[in-house]
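Holo prediction — beta-D-galactopyranose.
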Amino acid sequence: MNAITRLATAVSLASLFPLAASAADDKGTIEVTHWWTSPGENAAMEVLRNQVKADGYTWKDNAVAGGGGSTAMTVLKSRVVAGNPPGAAQIKGPDIQEWAKAGYLIPDNGLDDVAKENNWDTLLYPTAAKIVQYGNHYVAVPFNIHRVNWLWINPEAFKKAGIAKPPTSLEELYDAAAKLQQAGITPIALGGQPWQDSTLFESVVLAVMGPEGYHKSFVDLDQATLTGQKMADAFAALKKLAGYMDPNRSGKDWNLTTADVINGKAGMQPMGDWAKSEWTAAKKVAGKDYLCVPFPGTAGSYTYNVDSLAMFNVKNKGTLAAQRDVAKIALGTQFQTVFNQNKGSIPVRNDIDMSQFDSCAQASAKDFAEASKDGGAQPSMAHNMATNLPVQGAVFDVVTNFINDKNADPAKAAQQLGAAIKAAQ
Ligand code: GAL
């Protein structure tokens, strides 16, 4: 063997060895961009991570902290622009369509086959199935259904403040807040971040306008509704509620405000049911240690938020196999149960036995089924279900500027909302 051939053999063996070594115990790697970093969210994600690993794949975690996911979406965009997309990313709602339209998600990576083999068309709630398909092909994997219009209550705090029962209308909510304040308890726990401000705002709009007005505002983006008197009323209600929040809430994470309610520093939190994941992680029991009620004035309506992982267009065979594995795991009966018990959401499959879930999840499943029949189920604006991200960003800006400005005028804010949405469309 001459020197050149010897060198060539050595180089090719060296490059083969690492591959051979990892191929023996690793069927492929999937990197996943997501924002499930709170203790409760992490516990749910761990259920998925463990199963993927048990199936022989390597999970590379690209967790980007920041509830609601705005930071994660910024990171994702820059990775894709740099030509370095992850195997999967938490992308939701109409945004999935935009990524698919731009050619980044693959309709032919085998997701359709997994879906067919596992009966997704029959098992998935139609609302969810529609969201994760592009041109009749599955491009993302749905995990759950979160309800956004909830209010989480510490019953001990209510007792101390002499509040007899959970509020069922905005008037009763103001009343309860005033009593908590008198008792020296922060009435409403809400972190000061745009997505949190708008999470409350959309529930207030739902309470003031009902599901039709909500739909006209955030799905139809109807200018007359966006700038009308009822929208001004919603801003006025938001202002009133902001007066009952911790003045030092700026930038505070949602799970830290949940902790304030858990330990009785605050009385209630308007938040989607991922908040329940924190109560669960703290070993608290629904209906005993905490109460969940529809956001006051919105019983009968249901703002939904479906979490999903979109699968990116990659060439690596191992990653493609791992993508299909994630898809297979996600819709499994056992996984749907354990994951959603940890996450606070309800299964995205319509045939899961809900008797294994707590009273809040059981109420959520029942309310979702009922609200879906008569237009009461509406996509969450604050959680990327109703609009694309530029329109959502326009709403976030107007709402957060309004909530932080004590002198802001509700009627003017409604006009600004209409104008900002028009400009973003
Ligand atoms: C939502 C997401 C939920 C939850 C929440 C807070 O947008 O859908 O799963 O994690 O953000 O991070």
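READOUT: DSSP finds 19 helices and 15 strands in the chain.
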